[in-house]
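User: I'm preparing a small set of examples for a lab meeting where we compare how different chains pack in three dimensions. I only have the primary sequence for this one, and I'd like the structure in token form so I can line it up with the others. Please keep the answer compact; I'll paste it straight into my notes.
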Amino acid sequence: MENTLKTWFLSFLHLFFSRQCAVCGTPLQEGEEAICLKCNMNLPRTDYHLRTDNPVERMFWGKLPLERATSYFFYHKGSDFRRILHQLKYGGRKDLGETMGRFMAAELTVSGFFHSVDVIVPIPLHPRKQRMRGYNQSECIAKGVAAVTGIPLDAASVMRRKHTETQTSKSVYERWENVDGIFHLRHPERFVGKHILLVDDVLTTGATTTACADVFRDVEGVRISVLTLAVANF
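Assistant: Understood. Below is the structure token output for the 234-residue chain.
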């Protein structure tokens, strides 16, 4: 209850006092949303959606029935752009997730990235963590993508049934071990022959995304694409 109230309070404050760039903190001008024009222009975009067999796609080769995959911008700990992710995950800024989702979708749409996608599925949080945070940041991003593309959003069919420790300080092997079998798919018949877009906030080893995609392994004719807001710089 305390965390929920905190989230509501933060959302209230941001509603009236958030007219600052999420990256550099300068006041936003009329027409600017979430990040200022300068930071938007300097956003370290990957442009991987323009490249076939890009590094993000290669992360999932042989692990899932992949159609395409990309991430919007590069992330590394020393970058000012890490503030976008920090405010989204820990600062109560779910509005920032939807805004960045719209930005991302608007740029990727012209390349045909969303062609043939039937449904958007955000990577779910465990219910306990979602109650603590007040929202699922990946679902916020997915809502922004859905708003631009018009593709239906399904945030209920995939469930996270195991509460896991944070992945931040874990090794590659520990990350894979930590997420093994943590997701569950309800009503798999709804996804027969569908092209599913999995959406998450940050891509590192791909362990969580692969574990989520694994729940569709027995669904006939399923195809999967992956989209994340950021990717750890290779």
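A couple of notes for your slides: The chain has nine helices and six strands. The longest strand covers residues 66-75.

User: Perfect, thanks.
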